[in-house]
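Field reference: sequence -> structure
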Amino acid sequence: VQLVESGGGLVQPGGSLRLSCAASGFTFSRYVMSWYRQAPGKERDLVARITSGGGSTNYADSVKGRFTISRDNAKNTVYLQMNSLKPEDTAVYYCNARFLAADYWGQGTQVTVSS
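Structure field:
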């Protein structure tokens, strides 16, 4: 099982980034996919979640209206489009896959929002 995040980096406030998480080793289309983030000295928090078929999403209040989660089950990939980025969005972003008792994590990708 692998979840490989990409797309992180340094961006100025107000900028955009698109994170990707490529999955392999399990039946991706069965899994609820989520993005979490963890800032230094803080707990890992849920950012966004999407159901297995992509029909339902939910977001942390802090990112509503700015971030969009999506998935392509044909490509076994989940995305996080991040717009209007703020310094407080700086964190390591993790991809998560969950189905019944299975719970998988990626290694994380750093997002830094700074001028």
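Note: DSSP finds no helices and eleven strands in the chain.
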